[in-house]
TrEMBL record:
<dbReference type="InterPro" id="IPR036726">
    <property type="entry name" value="GTP1_OBG_dom_sf"/>
</dbReference>
<keyword id="KW-0963">Cytoplasm</keyword>
<dbReference type="InterPro" id="IPR014100">
    <property type="entry name" value="GTP-bd_Obg/CgtA"/>
</dbReference>
<dbReference type="InterPro" id="IPR006074">
    <property type="entry name" value="GTP1-OBG_CS"/>
</dbReference>
<comment type="similarity">
    <text>Belongs to the TRAFAC class OBG-HflX-like GTPase superfamily. OBG GTPase family.</text>
</comment>
<dbReference type="InterPro" id="IPR031167">
    <property type="entry name" value="G_OBG"/>
</dbReference>
<protein>
    <recommendedName>
        <fullName>GTPase Obg</fullName>
        <ecNumber>3.6.5.-</ecNumber>
    </recommendedName>
</protein>
<dbReference type="InterPro" id="IPR027417">
    <property type="entry name" value="P-loop_NTPase"/>
</dbReference>
<feature type="binding site">
    <location>
        <begin position="283"/>
        <end position="286"/>
    </location>
    <ligand>
        <name>GTP</name>
    </ligand>
</feature>
<feature type="domain" description="Obg">
    <location>
        <begin position="4"/>
        <end position="162"/>
    </location>
</feature>
<feature type="binding site">
    <location>
        <position position="176"/>
    </location>
    <ligand>
        <name>Mg(2+)</name>
    </ligand>
</feature>
<keyword id="KW-0378">Hydrolase</keyword>
<feature type="binding site">
    <location>
        <begin position="216"/>
        <end position="219"/>
    </location>
    <ligand>
        <name>GTP</name>
    </ligand>
</feature>
<dbReference type="Pfam" id="PF01018">
    <property type="entry name" value="GTP1_OBG"/>
</dbReference>
<keyword id="KW-0547">Nucleotide-binding</keyword>
<comment type="function">
    <text>An essential GTPase which binds GTP, GDP and possibly (p)ppGpp with moderate affinity, with high nucleotide exchange rates and a fairly low GTP hydrolysis rate. Plays a role in control of the cell cycle, stress response, ribosome biogenesis and in those bacteria that undergo differentiation, in morphogenesis control.</text>
</comment>
<dbReference type="InterPro" id="IPR006169">
    <property type="entry name" value="GTP1_OBG_dom"/>
</dbReference>
Length: 335
């Protein structure tokens, strides 16, 4: 999937169908001059329904569908015939889609399971026909109920990626390179910051035909929790990852400081994120000789206080199988 096709945020207007009006018909037949009321009920207006689809990974198909309306209910007829129900409108969305009310910003619901259906705009109820209003004192009522009106609202659809492993790091830390080496994903890679402007997903093949999903989240900068840089547009994707992989290049000025800054941004955005399993990976370690690596290990053992870390090189293909083993172990112990 190209970066331009990855859409994780759309605003759309939805409107249900209005209910059909009830009929005020009076029964007429040969030799029956004054028959009683026989007006039927109006049909229900169509619902607008969101349905989860595990085969979708983006909201791209809704990028240009800004107005979605369901069908109106049919009017009631004679002989107590009920009007037809309005056609329901289904909107397929990827798993992990959060639905918000645009006016209040309130979360209405989330779609997390394949086939899960949620009504976002309920169709209007059909009006009752005059047959319902007959009584001993009013045997020929000439009135019926109108149908209930349309329910309309502006909603926001936000996608939070359902990936097993989320790559967290500063711009140009090597996240896209690692994803391209471990998976068949083809993210844009270059030697300048903010190459990745949209999340990328890839499937990591593991032993015995097993696999897990990894997401490359655009690089964090200081102040991201307050919306600086790409802000909340990518931080929300980290919320659904089972394991967070912190990627820090070996040539960083201070590995511990970089990790602390990244951790602090996540903490300020959503403290619950810190409950997830974490792994620190030192990338670009092919630049280190054995003596320098040993010095760094001694320093990291002291600074990181028992946190797990690994040295890898995506370009030189070093430590990648060890990384897969570690991630698989963490994923299966955190389930």
């Amino acid at each position: 999937m190209t970066e331009g096709n990855f859409v994780d945020y759309v605003k759309i207007y939805v409107a249900s169908g209005k209910g059909g009006k009830g009929s005020s018909h009076l029964h007429r037949e040969k030799f029956i001059e004054k028959g009683g009321p026989d007006g039927g009920d109006g049909g229900r207006g169509g619902h607008v329904i969101l349905i989860g689809n595990k085969n979708l990974w983006t909201l791209f198909h809704l990028k240009f569908a800004r107005h979605i309306k369901a069908g109106h209910g049919g009017d009631g007829g004679s002989a107590r015939s009920t009007g037809a129900d309005g056609e329901d409108k289904y909107i397929e969305v990827p798993l992990g889609t959060v639905v918000r009310d645009q006016e209040t910003n309130e979360i209405l619901f989330e779609i997390t399971e394949d086939g899960e259906k949620r009504v976002v705009a309920k169709g209007g109820k059909g009006g009752l026909g005059n047959w319902h209003f007959r009584s001993s004192t009013n045997q020929t009522p000439r009135y019926a109920q109108p149908g209930m009106p349309v329910e309309e609202k502006d909603i926001i659809l936000e996608l939070k990626l359902l990936a097993d492993v989320g790559l967290v790091g500063f711009p140009n830390a090597g996240k896209s390179t690692l994803l391209s080496v471990l998976t068949s994903a083809k993210p844009k890679i270059a030697d300048y910051p903010f190459t990745t402007l949209k999340p990328n997903l890839g499937i990591v093949s593991y032993r015995d035909f097993q696999s897990f999903v990894m997401a490359d989240i655009p690089g964090i900068i200081e102040g991201a929790a307050e919306g600086k840089g790409l802000g909340h547009y990518f931080l929300r994707h980290i919320e659904r990852n089972s394991v967070l992989l912190f990627l820090i290049p070996a040539d960083a000025d201070n590995i511990k400081n970089e990790y602390e800054i990244l951790l602090d941004e996540l903490r300020r955005y959503n403290p619950e994120i810190l409950d997830k399993e974490r792994l620190i990976v030192i990338s670009k370690s092919d630049m280190l000789d054995e003596e320098l690596k040993a010095e760094m290990k001694a320093e990291l053992d002291k600074d990181l206080q028992g946190l797990q870390y690994l040295f890898i090189s995506s370009v030189a293909q070093q430590g990648l199988m060890e990384l897969k083993d570690k991630l698989w172990q963490m994923l299966n112990t955190s389930l």
